[in-house]
Amino acid sequence: MNFTQQLLVPFLYALSWNPTASSEQTCAIDSAPTEYSLPSLPYAYDALAPYISSQIMTLHHSKHHQTYVTNLNKALSLESSLTESADIPTRIANQQAIKFNGGGHINHSLFWKSLVPASSPHADTSNAPNLAKALNADFGGLEKFKDKFSAALLGIQGSGWGWLVKGVENGKLDIVTTKDQDPVEAKYVPILGVDMWEHAYYLQYLNGKADYVKNIWNIINWNEAEVRFEGGRADVFQVLQSKI
Ligand SMILES: [Fe+2]
């Protein structure tokens, strides 16, 4: 594994892109998208109101997420031109840009699909029967999980994300947090993620972060959570295979 791959491996794994793959898998690498695009929201900007305002959703999706996508594509383009460069500091700085903006694209793509209008049937926890059994086994029930997850979200210092994850190896559920735009580690399947950056709530909730966390339970897409729980990382990250 060369120097660039060593730097990129954690991120590439998050993209289900394995630089040590076999020749057969390499075909998939060659066909991997070189440019990413902003995914459409699966609902209207005002569909999550009153729990998340139309103004927040509009800015969050069309400005913040778009910026991560734009900057990811710029960094990936620069990376390809730096392949033979001896300017290691520039290459390292660009790796950081790929990590930050790639993570931002991953995390937000998952986030939009984790939410659903409160009026949708998918907002009902009955859509996640197998996940509910696992939550009962690993946390003592849905309400206890929600309490623990909410506490984890409110315990995040600065900008970051809270996640319900499933262990790839043992299938056990756990709660983890990630800093800034770091994606969930490769050893987990992300089931549910909540954006705790101020841009996700401040325009509506101001310093009332606890109310944002309390209200978000009204708009969780439990159908999507069940699908992710039943699947693997490749299924979850399929959203990233879209190309312009
Ligand atoms: Fe965000």
Automatic annotation (TrEMBL):
GO molecular function terms listed in the Swiss-Prot or TrEMBL record: manganese ion binding; superoxide dismutase activity
Cofactor list: Mn(2+)
Subcellular location(s) of the protein: Mitochondrion matrix
Binding residues for Mn(2+): H60, H108, D195, H199
Domain of life: Eukaryota
Signal peptide start-end: 1-23
Gene Ontology cellular component list: mitochondrial matrix
InterPro entries: Fe/Mn_Superoxide_Dismutase, Mn/Fe_SOD, Mn/Fe_SOD_BS, Mn/Fe_SOD_C, Mn/Fe_SOD_N, Mn/Fe_SOD_N_sf, SOD_C_sf
Domain Manganese/iron superoxide dismutase C-terminal: start-end pairs: 130-226
Keywords, comma-separated and alphabetical: Manganese, Metal-binding, Mitochondrion, Oxidoreductase, Signal, Transit peptide
Reaction(s) the record says it catalyses: 2 superoxide + 2 H(+) = H2O2 + O2
Self-association state and partner proteins as the record states: Homotetramer.
Task of the protein: Destroys superoxide anion radicals which are normally produced within the cells and which are toxic to biological systems.
Family: Belongs to the iron/manganese superoxide dismutase family.
Protein name: Superoxide dismutase
Native species: Viridothelium virens
Lineage: Eukaryota, Fungi, Dikarya, Ascomycota, Pezizomycotina
